[in-house]
Q: What sequence folds into this?
């Protein structure tokens, strides 16, 4: 095995196709359905998504070529390095080999740019002039604001009011990339006006912001909507991560025993592990850890049911693990992990026990992130800290059982805009709110009765 600190692929070795796991699943996924119970077809998505994206969403073709224009844009920061965390291993006194795939090197700071670029490209190719989208903490909005610049598109971002006010730095980044950013609820849409009529001081929510962006796209011919997680095509675009990890591990002469990634809507997890799930389905011994916050324990506590993708019920229903579309998680710092549902494919794999789900409270995650920062110098995003926590716990088990396993962390993003969260942890002000099953039960009761 080669002793390397990091493996950097050459640009010519960057994967040229995305991997579509739908081709390899033992059975078709439960269909996406409309609120009236009818399976959703292309016509239901056409007002908000371009045709190529809709085709990818339902495709069962195993390899989807990455367009040359997307490859060129990827090359601004890809291939991303796979690093060996020697210093972390030393501090943990573990015989495990810990690697991290560094998606924080992306220009916008997270893996989200991997899908923002192709989504902007396909929209441009179909004559779209402007993208409308929502953002919570600002990661997805930053990625889309930058991606649209490659293809000369305009970008409108509806940013949840509370983040707009409390996290202005990501807003400034989006504006620097040329996007138009509005606090949501805004008075630019009916959805926003309705909320403001009832509550002029509304702090907003991701659900409301989605409703505003979807309405903007549906009411303007030159504008389409885009989503940064959950959907099949988003997970597929992210497989460039796992395909690169595969090549990089081959170059070192190693193969992962465990891959850990955090889960909000499931896209960075999907990206890192789907190419390896194919191996597991053929009998390879490998474990996948889907790590979520204890405050929003979709995969570990929620039922596997049909639910709406958004609070306003504008999106169709998918079978997934869910806490209910009305569920409001407590205000943890990992804003990107506060989603009530999960990718239908990731949910399916958890249900089939091909993927293990676990959850952690935020304080132990920040403890892991600080140890990682001290060891490797890199400041993880609060979201990514969940994957690090899980990997560290596995490395500690390796120490206690004297097992030499290879553990890969998907480092989904950096935490340079989350320093106030670190300040809260370091000053001892951070709290862990106990998850209340009753909140979930109340929301689950409101789920549509579809089997
Ligand atoms: C958005 C985000 C996530 C969560 O989204 P997934 O779709 O589950 O990957 C995780 N990490 C970072 C850094 C993010 O910005």
A:
């Amino acid at each position: 095995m080669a002793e390397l600190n990091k493996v950097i692929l050459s640009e010519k070795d960057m994967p040229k196709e995305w991997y579509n796991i739908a081709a390899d699943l033992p059975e078709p996924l439960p269909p996406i359905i409309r609120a009236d119970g009818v399976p959703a077809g292309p016509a239901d998505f056409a007002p908000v998504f371009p045709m190529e994206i809709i085709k990818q969403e339902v495709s069962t073709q195993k390899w989807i070529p990455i367009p040359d224009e997307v490859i060129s844009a990827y090359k601004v920061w890809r291939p991303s390095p796979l690093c060996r965390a020697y210093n972390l291993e030393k501090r943990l006194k573990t015989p495990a080999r810990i690697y991290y795939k560094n998606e924080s090197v992306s220009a916008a700071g997270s893996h989200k740019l991997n899908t923002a670029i192709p989504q902007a490209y396909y929209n441009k190719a179909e004559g779209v002039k402007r993208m409308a989208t929502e953002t919570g903490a600002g990661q997805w909005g930053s990625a889309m604001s930058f991606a649209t610049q490659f293809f000369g598109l305009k970008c409108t971002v509806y940013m949840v009011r509370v983040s707009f006010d409390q996290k202005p730095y990501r807003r400034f980044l989006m504006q620097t990339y040329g996007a138009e950013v509005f606090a949501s609820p805004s008075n630019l849409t009916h959805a926003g006006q309705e909320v403001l009529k009832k509550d002029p001081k509304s702090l907003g929510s991701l659900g409301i912001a989605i409703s505003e962006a979807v309405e903007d796209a549906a009411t303007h011919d030159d504008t389409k909507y885009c989503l940064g997680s959950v959907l099949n095509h988003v997970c597929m675009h992210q497989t460039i991560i796992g395909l690169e990890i595969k090549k990089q591990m081959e170059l070192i002469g190693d193969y992962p025993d465990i891959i850990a990634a955090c889960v909000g809507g499931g896209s960075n997890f999907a990206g890192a592990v789907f190419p390896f799930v194919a191996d597991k389905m053929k009998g390879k011994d490998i474990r996948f850890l889907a790590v979520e916050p204890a405050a929003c324990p979709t995969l570990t506590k929620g039922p596997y049911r049909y639910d709406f993708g958004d609070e306003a019920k504008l999106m169709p229903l998918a079978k997934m693990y869910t806490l209910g579309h009305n569920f409001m998680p407590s205000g943890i710092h990992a804003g990107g992990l506060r989603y009530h549902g999960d990718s239908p494919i990731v949910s399916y794999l958890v249900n089939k026990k091909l993927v293990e789900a676990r959850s952690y409270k935020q304080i132990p995650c920040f403890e892991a992130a600080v140890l990682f920062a001290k060891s490797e110098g890199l400041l993880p995003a609060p979201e990514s800290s969940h994957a690090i926590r899980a990997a560290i716990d596995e490395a500690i088990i390796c120490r206690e059982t004297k097992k030499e396993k290879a553990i890969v962390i998907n480092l989904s993003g950096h935490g340079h805009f989350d320093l106030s969260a670190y300040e809260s942890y370091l000053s001892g002000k951070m709290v862990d709110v106990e998850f209340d099953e009753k909140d979930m039960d109340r929301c689950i009761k409101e789920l549509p009765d579809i089997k």
Observations:
- DSSP finds 19 helices and 15 strands in the chain.
